[in-house]
Every structure is written in structure tokens, then in C-alpha cells.
Design goal:
GO terms for molecular function: DNA binding. Keywords: DNA-binding, Phosphoprotein. With about 220 residues, the protein is of the alpha/beta class. It is built from 10 helices and 5 strands; from the N terminus they run βαβαβαβαβαααααα. Strands 2-1-3-4-5 form a 5-stranded parallel β-sheet, with helices on both faces. β1, α1 and β2 form a beta-alpha-beta unit. The chain is elongated and about 60 Å long. The N and C termini lie far apart (about 35 Å).
């Protein structure tokens, strides 16, 4: 059996050392490299093309969700053995979980999970399956039910399309950014962001930000 080639993108030095030590002891895993921020991580993955990339969300410069999105877009559709992304993080908010999967993550694991479960997640992901930490499974299940309801509900309005600014805000919602973070990135006030979000929800016939993100992705409004 060939070894699973694993790379890690993690800015926490202690977490990096602990994970590296644990995985290097495994006969079925080959440690190929690590990076401490998103930019270096993206270059590392593009250069080494590991089987599994373990990626933290809270990285300096570009976060793990954006890294995942950029790397997945850089992979060829006909690549024989594409790198699979396993998110390993302390973050379990609904927005970030769904944004990670929307960006192309294959699996999602919490940092406080036992080593045995992490190894199980790595193997399952390598075999082509999505591994979802039990701690966030409820979020994925809940969203699946919402998506089914949305698909049976009203369509996105074509008589009142989203403005260019609303599309910018919507893209950032899909990428997992909070209202405060969106305000900072677009150099607008928090109140203005909230106004845009309200209009987006109305135009997409969505009950909340998460449902709006799902509708936007399913309809191709954002990537």
C-alpha cells in the first residue's frame, strides 16, 4: 500500500509540532512539508501536490477558506490524483463550515478531535470520501434540509437583480466573512453592510445569510 502524502498549513507552532510528530510516527503517512501562512501554503500545495492538505482556517494573510478556493481553482479538472483538502480548525460557526465546503474543502475536522479520529479522517478523505466531524455534522444536515426547502420554494427575482455592490457583499458572505469583516474589506460602515445584507436576503427570498449563500452558489451568482 502506498503512503499517504500529507502537507500542513498551520500558523500555530505548537499545533504544527504536535501534528507533525504524531503523523511522522505512522508507517502509512509520508510528511511532505508545512507552511505557516496562506500565501506560502498555496505555493507549497501547488509545488508539491500532496495527497492530503490539512488546512487551518485562521491563517495570516489569506485565510484557509480562500486558500482552499484558490488552490481548487488551480487544479486541472482532469488531474489524475488531485489534492484533497481537510480543514482542521477550532472554528465551528455555521458560516465558516459552509463556506469551507463551498470553497471546495473535502473534509472538516475539529482540532480537539482525538488523534485516532484525525487519522481516520485523513484516510477517508484520501479514499475519496468526505469526513465530517460529529461536532459540526448537525450544521451540514441542517443546511441540507434548508437547501431542499429552498429548491422547492420561490425562484431568485429577475425583476430586481442584485447591484454590483450587493454581489460583492454576497461573495464575501459566501467566503465566510462576518458583517464587520465585510465592512473593513469594502471600506464601508457596518450599518451599510447590514443594509446590503437585508436587501440581498429580500432579493434572494432567503431567511438568513447561510441560505442566501447556498442560493447564490446553486444559481451561479457567485463562485
Amino acid at each position: 500500500m502506498s503512503k499517504i502524502r500529507v502537507a500542513l498549513i498551520e500558523d500555530d507552532e505548537l499545533a504544527q509540532i504536535g501534528l507533525k510528530t504524531a503523523l511522522k510516527q505512522r508507517d502509512d503517512i509520508e510528511w511532505v512539508g508545512e507552511a505557516v501562512n496562506g500565501s506560502e501554503g498555496l505555493q507549497l500545495l501547488q509545488r508539491l501536490r500532496p495527497d492530503i492538505a490539512i488546512v487551518d482556517i485562521g491563517l495570516p494573510d489569506i485565510n484557509g477558506i480562500e486558500l482552499t478556493k484558490q488552490f481548487k481553482q488551480s487544479q486541472s479538472a482532469d488531474e489524475e490524483a488531485p489534492t484533497k483538502i481537510l480543514i482542521l480548525t477550532l472554528r465551528d460557526s455555521e458560516n465558516e463550515v459552509l463556506a469551507a465546503f463551498a470553497a471546495g474543502a473535502d473534509s472538516y475536522c475539529m482540532k480537539d478531535t482525538r488523534t485516532e479520529l484525525l487519522l481516520e479522517a485523513i484516510k477517508a478523505t484520501w479514499e475519496g470520501n468526505s469526513w465530517i466531524d460529529p461536532a459540526i455534522a448537525r450544521i451540514v444536515l441542517s443546511q441540507a434540509k434548508k437547501a431542499k426547502t429552498v429548491s422547492q420554494g420561490s425562484q431568485i427575482s429577475t425583476t430586481d437583480p442584485l447591484t454590483e455592490r450587493e454581489l460583492e457583499v454576497l461573495q464575501l458572505i459566501v467566503d465566510g466573512y462576518s458583517n464587520a469583516e465585510i465592512a473593513q474589506r469594502l471600506f464601508i460602515t457596518l450599518g451599510t453592510v447590514k443594509t446590503h445584507v437585508r436587501k440581498i436576503l429580500t432579493k434572494l427570498s432567503a431567511d438568513d445569510r447561510t441560505q442566501a449563500a447556498v442560493r447564490a452558489l446553486r444559481s451561479g451568482l457567485v463562485g
